[in-house]
Specification:
Chain lengths: 162, 157
């Protein structure tokens, strides 16, 4: 084998390794399915704040946990009832207490249909994040008493900030 | 130089290249903590439009400056319609968005999710850029209370 062909071969192997690593690294940053949740169809929550609303997503933290941005989107709000008005939403991190990591009030000010609403929550390592799998469970309920909230859909997603 | 040492040299340079590539790919997906902010106290502003408010995030732009997306997600109460905007690198408050008045007697809050797209032509520069919240209430002032909120800036790839 000539020296030129040896050189070409070794360079090709290096290039192949680089391509493989890029592919692996990129796929490592793809959004895993457990980090997102979409539920469509009429959904009714009936609770007084603050209890689990039984919707959970998960995110996998590295050895040194980093902040997580959780986005919660409420589809069209169909109705809100109860003697008391006002519905709060928050998160239970790894099964901990229901906590507000940003805005909490699901708008219930209108008697008629209102548009989609989005909440952006920031969960910090000091909030109880740990290396490996972390769960984020939707929680909440009526601010001033048992309240019923019916929406057309909900979407949750978690974005690791590493 | 022997064939063995040549191979070793190429192998080492190949591994070095791989490490550099991995580092670049990882950093391309990074979101430094100063790009996000969480406020857990109520803040009341009484000024008319527009003054800077004490909420700032920082983003680092590459040599070729690219757009960024800024998101404010907040609870609020306001006795008059209010506007909320952002200031890029201490430039005047821009792209204000309207927040409707909402101040029921039971103390409940409303919530809003506001998003801005900041273009390089809006004053972004290579390196560190500050994004500061700004705004005001009514024509002559009023009471706007921001409750729990998060502010996040995200650089476009």
């Amino acid at each position: 084998m000539s020296r030129i062909s040896q050189f070409v071969r070794s360079q090709s192997i290096c290039l192949a390794i680089v391509c493989l690593v890029i592919g692996c690294a990129a796929s490592a940053f793809a959004v895993p399915p457990e980090e997102t949740l979409h539920v469509s169809g009429q959904i009714t929550f009936n609770a007084q704040c603050c209890v689990s609303l039984d919707r959970t997503i998960a995110a996998t933290e590295p050895e040194k946990p980093v902040p997580v941005v959780v986005t919660f989107e409420v589809g069209r709000i169909i109705s809100e009832g109860g003697v008391h008005r006002g519905f709060l939403s928050g998160l239970m991190v790894n099964g901990g207490p229901c906590t507000f990591y940003g805005p909490a009030y699901v708008p219930t000010i209108l008697e008629t249909v209102v548009d989609n609403r989005t909440f952006q929550w920031v969960v910090l390592p000091s909030d109880g994040l740990r290396p490996g799998t972390n769960t984020f469970t939707l929680c909440g309920g009526g601010a001033f008493g048992s309240t019923s909230l019916t929406v057309a859909s909900i979407t949750m997603s978690a974005r690791l900030s590493n | 130089m022997s064939i063995g040492s040549k191979i070793t040299k190429r192998l080492v340079s190949g591994i070095a290249t791989v490490c550099v590539v991995v580092g670049m790919v990882s950093s391309a997906f990074a979101v430094p903590p100063n790009e996000i902010l969480r406020i857990e106290t109520n803040q009341t502003f009484t000024n008319a439009c527009c003054v800077f408010w004490p909420e700032t995030v920082t983003v680092t732009e590459p040599k070729a400056v690219v757009p960024i997306t800024v998101t404010l997600s907040t609870d609020y109460r306001s006795d008059l319609d209010a506007v909320i905007g952002i200031s890029v690198n201490n430039h005047p408050c821009m792209t204000e968005q309207l927040v409707i008045h909402f101040a029921p007697s039971d103390g409940a809050f409303h919530s809003e999710n506001l998003e801005w797209v900041v273009l390089p032509s809006d004053g972004l520069i290579k390196g560190n850029n500050t994004i500061t919240l700004c705004g005001g209430v009514g024509f002559n002032g009023g009471n706007l209370t921001l409750g729990f909120n998060t502010l996040a800036a995200r650089i476009s790839k």
